[in-house]
Amino acid sequence: MFLVARNAEKLAAVAADLKTRGAAYVGTAVADLDETDKHAELLAHAVNSLTGMDIAYLAYGILGDQPRGEQDFEHAAQILHSNFVAPVSLLTWLANFCVQRHTGVLAVISSVAGDRGRKSNYLYGSSKAGLSAFLGGLRNRIDREGVTVLTIKPGPVKTAMTAGMKGSEKFADVNKVAASIVSSIDKRADNLYVPFQWQPIMFIIRNIPDRIFKKLNL
Length: 218
Known about the structure:
Elements: E1 2-5, H1 8-20, E2 27-30, H2 39-50, E3 55-58, H3 66-71, H4 73-101, E4 105-109, H5 122-142, E5 148-154, H6 174-186, E6 191-194, H7 198-206, H8 210-213
Parallel strand pairs: 1-2, 3-4, 4-5, 5-6
Helix pairs in contact: 4-5
């Protein structure tokens, strides 16, 4: 495995845990993935360290502050950059690498929030909507080259990002979500709503007429 994270201390702890569990090799790099000009060098280093790549897993992004972003374009732009622009940069490099080898899996965290814009989080949601659309087009381009693109759409999950949110104690368990992701990667699935009930929920939300939807507090 090759792990990339911003926090060196947490990264070292995860790497040490993986080695204890029997990982044959764990390479690491401390990086801020917002710095897109450094992506090519970082990814080339990772691939060289692993002497190849089977699966790339992107769990990267920020929730941001919706009320602040409504007033401050710079903050809105940061949300869009972290959640959409930077992942597109990473995926462009990774996709082209996999196409050359005619194999590989790109598993990417998007969100159910991208299925329809809601006033409570439309900046985060729009960034994830863009990412989901990009992944759909990328899949259409490279699936025929033997490369799988998995779009992962979690509902709210109990993580550090959501710890301060109201009702977070009821959010999905991160270990169960992780198990579903691993299973979908193994199956070479295209899309995953997790927990599964979010698929019918978002189908209903997407199909509420705008004349009704605009009056809802969501």
